[in-house]
Predict the 3D structure of the following.
Amino acid sequence: MKKVKLMKKYANLIATIGIRAHSGQNVVIQANVEMSEFVHYLVKELYNQKVKHVDVVYTDQILIKQKLMNSSLKRASEIDEFYVQRMEERAKQGYARILLDGDDPMVFQFVPSEKLKAYNYAFRSATYPFRRIYNSNELAWCIAGVPTKQWASRVFKDDSPTQALAKLWKAVYKACRIEEDNDPISEWNEHVERMKRNASLINDMKLVSLHYKNSLGTDLTIKLPKNYRFTGANNIQKINGRGFVPNIPTEEIFASPRLDGVDGIVYSSKLLNYHGIVIDKFFLKFKDGKVIDFGAETGYEALKGIIEFDEGSCRLGECALIPYHSPISELGIVFLSTLFDENASCHLALGASFNECIENGENMSEEELTAAGLNSSKEHVDFMIGTKDLQIDGIDEEGHTHPIFVDGDFAF
């Protein structure tokens, strides 16, 4: 049966490429309750690859919505301690983590903004200790998209839920390089090597800054920290030196800007779905790394909430390079999911930097990372800026200019 065959291929991809499953490994999966059919295939595949134990944590965003709609502001900021403790324990026990992304992107659309803000801040703060373990690549982790009817119906509004779900699965498979008669593992290994090559080319240029410009009005200079590193797709676990791919799909190579080195203005090229709130047609103006002005035609208050989330959320933590003609972009679908939409376009991120984006960063303390120029925040929000006419120039230590992007795609 075609459906079963494709699901098994996808499960194999997440296990083999995503977390590099191996004998003796423990794995925790977080998934929406509607994903149970796919979770069964994934768990079976993990055990086929001889992992020691698989723990599944099911979540239901509708229950959280109901709580927020019927709670006081104070109660809205109370987090499920059992969930936090369970995930912290798994991190401390060395579990690889798989997060299956596919919740209704608009589930919190009608929740009062002050309650949603209180909940998000409390949740991000409570889960920061164990998330930091994974984000620092102490352990393998992977986020992968799994369609649900709620998500599919938001993307394909004119179709029945069943038709929409079938269309979304087809698009997800295409984005993840899965076909009925191909070898996804081989294709992904080649894909990872291409991205590593592009990252190495930019690293070898010894750049000090990047200059972005396009017809939307973007005119932005991003300084890079000393000993910066563009990386992408293949991360390395500190615990055992094994590689893993944290995002499926992924098309990006990325670096972290110098926290005080961003100047100019940037305009969004695609809408941003932030916890069910659409932020669209917005701009950010930077001076010395900090947002000093911003605006949005849609979702102004949500954008304001991101910028004011904490001390570091008004600065950039990531600049990612994705060709305009990437497979996901060419699908022409707005997925309403950052995991997919960010891989259709060059993007930036407000908030936390990545340790691996500076030489020896994985072995530095937070204080050392800050001293090296990386930003710190409990938030990390990607937003898309890529266009078909985006120009990006790199300036090296001797003042020479290197074309990085020409007309939206890599210049090399």
Notes: The longest strand covers residues 277-287. The two ends are 42 Å apart (CA to CA). The mean pLDDT is 95.
